[in-house]
Amino acid sequence: MNNNKVSLVSLFTSFASIGAITFGGGYAMLPFLEREVCDKRAWIKNEELLDFYALGQCTPGIIAINVATYIGYKKRGFLGALFSSIGIIFPSIFIITIISALFINFQDNQYVISAVAGIKVVVCALIANSIYRLVKKSIIDKTTFSLFIIALICLFIFKINIYLLILLSIIAGLVIKKVKKELSHAK
Amino acid sequence: MLSNLFLLFIEFFKIGLFTIGGGLATIPFLNELAINRPTWITQVDISNMIAISQSTPGPLGVNMATFTGYKVAGILGGVVASLGLAMPAFIIILIISKYLSGFNKKWYVKDSLYGLRSVVLALIIYAVSKIFLISLFNDDFSIKYTEVIIFLIIILIYRKLKIHPLFYIGAGAIIGIVLKLPS
Prior knowledge:
By secondary structure, chain A is mostly helical. Chain A has helices at 8-21, 30-40, 46-57, 63-106, 110-138, 142-156, 162-186.
């Protein structure tokens, strides 16, 4: 293994460069990650990155940080994980701090107000498109459809606490699957 | 000041711990934050933040944490909030890489996700409904016709032409300025 050759600085700069050029995070980041860590650096294989993306989907936290932590840890242990994950969030913190300072000072400017209003409408359209894709991916059968409807009712009508809802949905998943397995055994 | 930084860290740590999936999943928790800490951010701030986060590079969640943190406690606030958000992912992935190989293939992970996915989708819809309300409707719930027409046109074009989202965001800014859209 040539793992020792990977320097902490190169982990930081690689992930910082990915953080600086991807807009939107999550899935938008995948092609950039592939190019940098699979093709250019050959730190991990493509299949491994995709596996890891699946894992990032089922663990808490921002996917970009999950992936950076994982690759950094694999290459250089704890310090590698630290340098990689700080690397991937560094550009965001830097850029957004500057923009926040500008925005808070210029948010009463007519041009800024109109531009942001226009961007908001576009963002609504982009989000509507993402939701459409999520519906096709997340609602796969009658049970998930029922859970979806029940969750909507709990949220819009009963204003359920969202942390509680997340925990309940995990319990529901475990119980429903358990019951389904029992039933198929009974047959 | 110090207690504000500490609270920022805790609040965003909580958000980082409960956000499962992509960046959109952070929005419901930000709405919750706006309800619990109205002096920090408002619903209007959140819709502005989302517009800004989508037009700048980096993960959505980190951008929103930095923006809120900066608003509450300046530069240090932005850094602390982002680190708070990142910390749960960092710790959990370290543990998983060390002790649990094949984590995503374990039955209890798959079964939990089975319940979780559709509920997270409901959460996202609930959260963005507020953003849609702010962007496409007036305070008295009457429709902002210009905005709704632009919204529909962009959805139609976006589904046909897969140009980079940044192109649409730039176009949105220009349309906004040309039509002098109000906030």
